[in-house]
Every structure is written in structure tokens, then in C-alpha cells.
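Quick one - inputs below.
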Amino acid sequence: MSSTTTAPHGAQSRRRGTRRVGFGGAFSRWDLKLSPYLYISPFFILFAVVGLFPIAFTGVISFMEWDLVRNSGEFIGFEQYAYVLSQPKFWIALRNTFSIFLLSSVPQLIVAVFIASLLDKNIRAKTFWRMGVLVPYVMAPVAVALIFSNMFGDRYGIINTLIQTIGLEPIPWHSNAFFSHIAIATMVNFRWTGYNILILLAAMQAVSRDYYEAATVDGAGPIRQFFSITLPSLKPTLIFVIITSTIGGLQIFDEPRMYDQFGTGGANNQWLTISLYLYNIGWGEWNFGRAAALAWILFIIILLIGVINLFVTRSLVRDEGGHRPPTRRERRIIARDLAASTAPRASQPTDSEVKR
Amino acid sequence: MNISAFRKGASAVALASAAALVLAGCSGSDNNAGGGDGEVTLTVATFNDFGYTEALLKEYSAAHPNVKVVHNRAATSNDARANYFQKLGKSGLADIEAIEVDWLPEVMKYSDMLAPVPEKLHDRWLGWKVDAATDANKNLIGYGTDIGPEAICYRSDLFAAAGLPTDRAEVTALLTGGWDKYFEIGNEYSTRTGKAFFDSAGGTYQGMINQVEAAYENPKNGDVIATDNADVKKIYDEVLAASKTQSAKLGQWSDDWNAGLADGAFATMLCPGWMLGVIEGNAKNVTGWDIANVFPGGGGNWGGSYLTVPAKGKNVAAAQELADWLTAPEQQIKAFGNSGNFPSQNEALTDATLLEATNAYFNNAPIGSIFSERAKAVSVSPFKGEKYFQINDAMQKALTRVEEGTQDADTSWKQWVSEVKALK
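Output:
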């Protein structure tokens, strides 16, 4: 073995030797080893300055009673963390964050997959429709929030006015926590559905048309084709979309902040989210030590969810195998075959042999 | 009080960071000021509209040829607040920085970082205006600009429909008295018409609590006394009892409230001078808004601003001189003419230009003389310590919870008490 592997190595270094043109040997070697790192270093230097330092600094002041103006603080250990975790407000904010996240991401992805598959078909004015779905994404989130907040006004809002004209009771968009989450999720969905549609559409177009042709020949209808070909092929893209919308969903800020005139999450914290709570503590009370502690708690929460995501992703990718994962029917057939072939053999190997 | 800070901020969150950047850029460029032969460039940072026009500032430069005045205006009070506290301990603030009463308690915590106002000027302003910005060491840290003395705005057409008097003087006589009198008339109005008398419990509460000298904190040591203060509980109960039938339950500055101003959702509201523009702006086509020279329980003030001179500035002496000039009665009267900001200077209150001012939208009401009298009626300067803002904010939310029906008055009070106790 060793003789076969050393031979190409030698050949390679000889080839490299002839390629050296102007530089001395040492410099060329350094050049070869360091250049790649040098080329990617600007990002990491920038990250260290605007990313790593603030993160570390946040970590330091989260253990302090920090005075922003005097730029000084007193070390108090884990007191800020303990305080935040002991506040009912924090747990309400956590509940609201997850509630808004689920109410926005789940319907959003379902609708996005559905619309993307429609756009994937042969329709007239393709580009027009495809650009059309992206228009809401171009709007500034604050503008979207302002318009929607006005529409969701409790008394004079357009939605409640419409509801009342058809004879129903007006919906308490602000005083009821669940309805306030629906309203905020609507703003998120309005903005992000189009973005997800385009990503999913791109993934759909990468699916080989041969599959569809073959399926048509086999007599599969469009619905069957969607579930058996389109959806399984989208899995890696769906995972990406789910991860990005999770990160975005857990950091939701603009929409709840703009939802009423005070921007502090409602009289009974109906739509207080974690990042809004963080903002209130930091820029409302100027308590940056406590805000930093909350920021770290949020970071840990996102990290936890990231880890869960990773495990889910891994298991899904492993499933996928070479081309595409087996459909449910195929799985059933495989399972039956396996059961038929292995199970009896394990218990009574000789019997089956005899019968055959 | 907290309401007005958010009023300006809530609709312009996006602008906040942008404005801060602009301010940073502007104030960064003045570092080369003060160079040369006695040439001084002074920066003045304000927000909204203080009425300090270019023409007014040119007057100062004309009298002081070596001084150049640069005026930076932030869009909202909230932008200015964020910028102020981020830079106060470091550098980059303008030579003169405007602050609003809403965040004055927070500024007072750092009163040692501001240049005090010379003693000889203290008599220039109304007593309560000076008291609010004087720290424990008897240093006055803000040059008073404007104030918000409160009167009662009312819809004369709605009053007529309810069989109440509509004439300004008659309404004044009708409402003269304490808050019980105000709620009594409100009850009469609501029973006759079935409609709301005032806009919200929160707005009305604010007018009432500002007449209590020490509502939430002990002025001597800053201890929180809010939850045990019988006055606070009494006002809470009183306003919520009236709220049941008399309140339109429209949170101030909400979209619904703006629409309600035009819709006739309520017949009266507490009305500082700067509120006139808000009402007119939201209800342009409504005729019938008028203003009565009366305020329940005496006088009341809502809002107002000061100019401060950060002690770290490069031209502190020159800046003090300019702040002195800007807040002198003559200039403040001009500012009143420019933007309607009601002056806080004793002399300005008797100025002929001010007293003759009228407002066409409010049925030609003599607003100058009305607010001048309202300003003199203010007798209490409520103590606002470090936690005032948070406690009051929690109280506003408690009142809103009851009005929107999420909780009853007792539950909401208990939640407020536990929230206040958790503050630290």
C-alpha cells in the first residue's frame, strides 16, 4: 500500500517544482500556505470587530449593573440572569415569540409551497407573476407594520368595519393575545411568503422533468406527482427555509414594535416578544446589564433550537440516499419484502428452505 | 407624561437610527470649532419644532459676529433621548442639547455632567418649571423653553346636543371645581346622550396624578411609595369608576384615538397648548372644538422642554450665553409666534403679543390669555425620581387593561403592585 501512495505524491511535487517562476522557494511555499487565509481574512477581521467584540462585551456586562452614561459597572454575578428568568414577563414574551413564530411560519410555508407549484406550471406571463409575489418583500417592514396596524384598529380599523358590515362581532385585535398574534403573523406572512415562494420555485425547477414525464406515462395525476415527486425533491430546500424562518421568527421585532402607539408589547404584554422585551429593558430603562443578560438567554434559546434543527436535518438527509427518498408506498413495499425475507429466516431458517 | 414621548417615537422607529447617525455625523464635524482667532461654532440640537428658525439664530450671530450657530433638529423626542444618553458620558453631543420633561428624571440622575444655569437667571422662569430641573445640590441644570399648561377642550356641538351650555365662559363656570365636579358633569352628559365624555382613563389619570406632589417616590430618599400611597389608589378608583360610562376607551395616540377626535367619540379632553395642533390635524373638517379656561383641581402641566449645556462640551461658556439668549422672554415670544410653543418665562406670560394670540380653529379662542392664566394656576411641581417613568408606564398599562376588558380593576391593581414591587 505504502509504495502505491507515495508515487503520485512525488509526481505532484515535481510538477509543482516546474511551475515556480519568479519567487524564491521559501516565499512560494508561504504564499501557497498563507494566501487562502489571507484572502478570507477580511471577513473574519470585520467579524471580530463588529461581531465578536460586541458579543464578548455583551457577555461581560451581562454580569454587571451597567451604567451606560458613566460607562462603568459593578460586578453582580448571575443576578441579572436570575432576575430576567424570575420575571413573569419573560415567560409571557417567550410564549408570544413561539406563538407568533408558529402562526407565521407554518401557514406561510404551506402557502409558499402551494403557490410555487402553481408558478412552476406552464402559465402565461410567467415573469410577471414571479416578480409579483416578491413585491411585498421589497416593502420596508416598518411601512408594512404601519399599514397593517391601521387596518387592525379595534374600532375604526378597516377589517373590523368589514366584519361588522356582515353582521359579526368586532375582533379584539389588541386586547386578546391570540388575535394580536394572528395580526402580527399576518404582517410577517405578507412580507415573507413571496421570498419563500421564489426559493422553493427555484428548487422545483431544478427537479428533472423526466420524472414528471415518466409519472405521466405511468398514469399519475398532478396531485400524485406533487406529493410523490415535487415535495420529496424539495426537502433540502425546505430545511433551509425552515431554519432561516426560525431564526427570523425568534428575533421578530419590527412588527410587534409598530403594532400600537407605545411599542411596548401591549397593556397585558399580549404581543411582547423576546427581542421587544430586550429593547424595552435596554432603551426604555437604560438597563444594559439586564438587556445583555436577556440577549444571552435569547442566544442560548436560538442555539438550542439550532441544535434540534441540525439533528432533524441530519436524519432527513441520511434518509435521502442517492437520488430521492422512497415514497410511502415504496417504503411499505420494502418493509414488506424485508419482513418476508428476514423475519422467518431468523426464526426458522431451515423450514423455509425446506418448503421452497 | 410618558405618553407624549412615545407618541412621537412610535411612528418613527425606522427614523431613529437614521437620525442618530445624522446627528453623529453633524456633531462629529463640529470638532474643528473654536479654532482660529476667537471664532466659535456653536451647535444646538433640538427635536420636533422649538420655533428656533434660521432667522432667529441669525439675530444672535449678528450681535455676536464671532459666533456661528449650527442648528440640528432630530425628528422626534425619542431620537433625541437615545442620542443624548448614548453620548452624554462620552463625546459627540452638541454644545446645547434640548431635553423633554418626559425624560427629565433620567437626565437628573446625571445632573453633575451638565453645566448649571447661573443663579441670577433663576427668577426668569415660573417657580415650578425651575423646581423640576433643580437637583439635590440646588443646581438648576436646564434653561426652560416651553411648557404645556392644561385647559379643557370640548365639542360645543356635542355639548349643545346634550343640553349643556356651549359658550366658553359658561362652560368654564360649569366645570370649575374639583375632579368630582368634572365627573359629575360627565355623568350628566353620558346619561343624556349615551356617549362618552372623555377620551380615556389613562389620559385623565395623567392630569390627576400630576397634581400630586409625591405620587410614586419619596422626594427625600427616592424610596418607592407608590403602592402604599392612598392618593394614587384614590385616583385610580375614581377614574375607573367614571370610566365605566364616561370614557371612550380610546388609548391616546392610537389610530382609533386619532379617528375618534374627528368622529366625536368623546366630548372633552385634557388639553395642553400643544394639543391644539394635534386636534386640528386629526379633525380638520370638524367645527365645534372649543377650549374652556378651566382645569379640574386647579392647574396642570403636561410636557415642555429645557435646553441643557453638557459640561464636557468645548465651548461651555459661549454655549451658556447662547442658551441664556435663546430662552430669554423676547426670543421665546418669537418662538411662540413661529411654532406655538408656549413660553415658560414669567415676563413672557404678560407679553402683549402672547395675550392677543387667538386660534381660528377653536372658535377664535383667545388661547394666549387662556394658557397664560392656566400656567399661573399650576401650583404643584410633582416629584419625579428615577423610577417615575417605569411606575407610571406600568400604571398606564393597568388602566388600559381595565378599559379594554382584559382584567377587572382589582386584578389589574394587584398586577401593577407586583410589577412595581419587582422593579429594581
